[in-house]
Design a protein that fits this description.
The chain is α/β, with parallel strands linked by helices. It is built from ten helices and ten strands. It folds into two domains: about 190 residues, 2-enoyl-CoA Hydratase, Chain A, domain 1; about 45 residues. The longest helix has 27 residues.
């Protein structure tokens, strides 16, 4: 366990706060703990959604502490890059809905953490960037791979290759974030959005999310949905969902 990540469970939502002042940077300890948290949450049938945000008012996360890379040399760089890839890969595969509440600067690995989430909500003051080439490095937590899928190759190149910092207004226009909110409202908005996930069958959500991710590479998109759709009819939640609809009541999801 580490105090650099704070986990709280509120009904069906898990809230993770990046808590490493002053810039909420990531290190081996917090990246490893994030991966462990995701693994545990995936096994918790009561958790349907996840919200991640930064402690304080200025930073969501400034990414990695460059001193760690600089002082540790190539071996530490290899260890850190593997940790980023593994942790954010696990976050992207969280079986429920993940939402990044971007409450300030999201730079480098901080932005890559948000990119690993399904949905991004950012405050007006938020600034997003992947500035690694400015120090002779490159994004190592999925930035070069995930960003083009969201904003297109042109904008991905502009952000990474020119080092441009993107503010919330522009971020929502290009599809880097899904919603811009007033300062101080990102977490509240994300939590409200996460609460609405409880209206959906968690098993259905997991299948839909997997198929959406598959769509990136699938050559036969219409066929991908057929087997998972039929398989849902073997679940308790599918029967409960239909019965609740017919009975005009709220479903009681069992995640089974």
């Amino acid at each position: 366990m580490t105090d650099k990540l704070i986990l709280e469970k509120i009904e069906h939502t898990a809230k993770i706060i990046i808590n490493n002042p002053s810039a909420n940077t990531w290190d081996l300890e917090s990246l490893s703990e994030l991966e462990k948290m995701i693994a545990a949450l995936n096994k918790d049938d009561d958790i349907f959604s996840l919200v991640i945000t930064g402690q304080g008012e200025k930073f969501f996360s400034a990414g990695a502490d460059l001193k760690v890379f600089h002082e540790g040399g190539k071996e530490v760089a290899k260890e850190m890059s593997n940790a980023f890839s593994s942790a954010f890969g696990a976050l992207s595969k969280f079986r429920g809905v993940s939402i990044a509440a971007i409450n300030g600067f999201a730079m480098g690995g901080g932005l890559e953490c948000a990119l690993a989430c399904d949905i991004r909500v950012a405050e007006e003051k938020a600034v997003l960037a992947l500035p690694e080439p400015k120090v002779g490095l490159l994004p190592c937590g999925g930035g070069t791979q995930v960003l083009p899928r969201l904003v297109g190759e042109g904008w991905a190149k502009r952000i990474i290759l020119t080092g441009e910092q993107i503010k919330a207004d522009q971020a929502v226009r290009i599809g880097l974030i899904e919603e811009k909110v007033e300062d101080g409202k990102a977490l509240e908005t994300a939590m409200l959005m996460a609460t609405s996930v409880a209206n959906q069958s968690p098993i259905s959500i997991a299948q839909c999310k997997e198929l959406i991710h598959k769509a990136r590479l699938s050559k036969e998109p219409y066929k991908e949905e057929l087997e998972p759709f039929v398989n849902l009819f073997d679940t308790k939640d599918q029967k409960e969902g239909v019965e609740a609809f017919l009975d005009k009541r709220k479903p009681n999801w069992q995640n089974a």
